[in-house]
């Protein structure tokens, strides 16, 4: 796993969201984007993280920041997850694992002594000009949305 560094150009992508609508990163130029990668829809940590973004979503909108979640789950799983928890932001489908690989978040993971390949929980803040402004390589799901808002408001 080799994460992108601050100042690097954010890799462009085109995919679909939970509603089958096309999502292009290039459509967000001129806005800040929180691009958060998570392992799997409707699992405890991922649900905590998504619900924290949901609960803080009005604050992100108020300061003009878009939120996009990315996992390798299917459109159908994303839709079910978004509907179950009333998620107001887009969940990007990456079944081909192109985006997770381009952003360096696909890698070896360990769980209960077992090793496997999967998506690491990483968040990128992409600036208005399309470059990586900040990287959070280790994320605490429940507190992450607050951490991001604090960074966006204070720069620290």
Structural notes for this entry:
The chain is α/β, with parallel strands linked by helices and 156 residues long. The chain has a single domain (14-154), classed as Glutaredoxin (3-Layer(aba) Sandwich). 29% of the residues lie in helices and 29% in strands. It contains four helices and nine strands; from the N terminus they run βββαβαβαββββα. The chain has a five-stranded mixed beta sheet with strand order 5-4-3-8-9. α1 (44-62) packs parallel to α4. The two termini are 25 Å apart. The model has no long low-confidence stretch (mean pLDDT 95).
Q: Sheet bearing the most strands, described?
A: 5 strands, mixed
Straight-line distance between termini: 25 Å
- Say which CATH homologous superfamily is assigned: Glutaredoxin
Specify the structural class: alpha/beta
**Shape field:** globular
Give the total of domains: 1
Mean pLDDT, all residues: 95
Q: What is the highest CATH level, the class? A: Alpha Beta
Please trace the helix and strand order, writing H or E for each element: EEEHEHEHEEEEH
Helix content range: 25-40%
| Strand percent estimate | 25-35%
Please state the second-level CATH architecture. Answer: 3-Layer(aba) Sandwich
Looking across the biggest beta sheet, what order are the strands in?
5-4-3-8-9
What value does the Rg take, in angstroms? 14 Å
What is the name of the CATH topology? Glutaredoxin
């Amino acid at each position: 796993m080799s994460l992108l560094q601050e100042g690097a150009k954010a890799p462009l992508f085109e995919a679909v969201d939970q509603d089958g609508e096309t999502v292009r990163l290039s459509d967000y130029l001129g806005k800040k984007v929180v691009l958060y990668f998570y392992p799997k829809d409707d699992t405890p940590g991922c649900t905590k993280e998504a619900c924290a973004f949901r609960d803080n979503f009005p604050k992100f909108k108020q300061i003009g920041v878009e939120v996009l979640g990315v996992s390798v789950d299917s459109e159908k799983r994303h839709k079910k997850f978004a509907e179950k928890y009333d998620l107001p932001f887009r969940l990007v489908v990456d079944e081909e694992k192109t985006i997770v690989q381009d952003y360096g978040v696909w890698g070896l993971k360990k769980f209960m002594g077992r090793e496997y390949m999967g998506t690491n929980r990483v968040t990128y803040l992409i600036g208005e000009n399309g470059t990586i402004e900040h990287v959070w390589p280790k994320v605490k799901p429940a507190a992450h949305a607050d951490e991001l808002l604090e960074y966006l408001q204070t720069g620290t």
